[in-house]
From TrEMBL:
A biological process term (GO) from this entry: fatty acid metabolic process
NCBIfam families: PRK08139.1
Any Pfam family matching the protein: ECH_1
Source taxon at top rank: Bacteria
SUPFAM superfamilies the record matches: ClpP/crotonase
Protein family per UniProt: Belongs to the enoyl-CoA hydratase/isomerase family.
Record protein name field: Enoyl-CoA hydratase domain-containing protein 3, mitochondrial
CDD domains on file: crotonase-like
Function: May play a role in fatty acid biosynthesis and insulin sensitivity.
Keywords: Fatty acid metabolism, Lipid metabolism, Transit peptide
PANTHER family: ENOYL-COA HYDRATASE DOMAIN-CONTAINING PROTEIN 3, MITOCHONDRIAL, PTHR43602
Gene3D superfamilies per record: 2-enoyl-CoA Hydratase, Chain A, domain 1, Lyase 2-enoyl-coa Hydratase, Chain A, domain 2
An example molecular function term from Gene Ontology annotations: hydro-lyase activity
Length: 265
């Protein structure tokens, strides 16, 4: 096992444990709000990871009592013109799309509160592990700012009625409710969060990175297609996947009853 700790500016920490990179939001005094600087730092780190063939899975975590409180409302208040607000929301959208399009799976490691764009951040990740005490909310309606961009990720993860209830009331939901709705993939005891998330990331990182990349991209593309188009697309993906080195190795290893040796290509 190799462990590397690095600082990434004043907003993030990064810990690499073999082929798993953990990005830690590190502005607990600001409730890890998604300021323009925080979003810039996150986007830059993800861009670096996207082309790093040694990293096969990513964990997104946070320091302090809150996972992420969403947009920095003080920053929003200081922007006095429409173009500035448009640029900030576009920056947030670009960050969420970068998570979805990242070649490596991204797992949110959630504790405390994840609200508004912080809830959007969780919904944008491929998987999310949360503590029993975690809470999730889209409370913008309570301050006259409907959570319209968080709605995009939220409504692609949970049922319409559940999404609308969260958006229209602003009420927080528990981790168990979030799991039942499909917003998160796992609920664990508070003291098990890091271990369970790391084990999950390592299990995924042990697979063929090229196969996981193919599958992640295909998942998000097919899910928006009509049924017949989705099957046509998925069939073409599987056909291309069959031609890869790792598919040949994996099938051969299964037939020969031995562990595969991945080349990640």
């Amino acid at each position: 096992m190799t462990l590397k700790n690095t600082m990434t500016g004043n907003y993030l920490l990064r810990e690499d444990n073999d082929s798993v990179a953990t990005i830690i939001m590190d502005t607990p005094e600001r409730r890890n709000a998604l300021s323009s600087q925080m979003m810039e730092a996150l986007h830059a780190e993800l861009e670096a990871i996207a082309t790093d063939r040694t990293i096969h899975a990513v964990i997104l975590a946070a320091n302090g009592p809150v996972f992420c409180a969403g947009h920095d409302l003080k920053e929003l208040k200081t922007i006095s013109h429409c173009d500035g607000h448009a640029a900030l929301f576009a920056q947030c959208s670009d960050l969420m799309v970068r998570i979805v399009t990242l070649p490596q799976p991204v797992i949110a490691r959630v504790h405390g509160m994840a609200t508004a764009a912080g809830c959007q951040l969780v919904a944008s990740c491929d998987l999310a592990v949360a503590t029993q005490s975690a809470r999730f909310a889209t409370p913008g309606v309570n301050i006259g700012l409907f959570c319209s961009t968080p709605m995009v990720a939220l409504s692609r993860n949970i049922g319409r009625k559940h999404a609308m209830r969260m958006l229209l009331t602003g009420d927080p939901i528990t981790a168990d409710q979030a799991w039942q709705m499909g917003l998160i993939s796992d609920v664990v005891a508070d003291d098990m969060l890091e271990n369970v998330t790391q084990e999950l990331a390592e299990k995924i990182a042990a697979k063929s990175a090229s196969t996981v990349k193919i599958g992640k991209e295909a998942f998000y593309r097919q899910i928006e297609m009509p049924l017949n188009a989705a099957y046509d697309y998925a069939s073409s993906v599987m056909t291309a996947n069959m031609q890869t080195t790792d598919a040949g190795e994996g099938i051969g290893a299964f037939v020969e009853k031995r562990p595969p040796t991945w080349r990640h290509e």
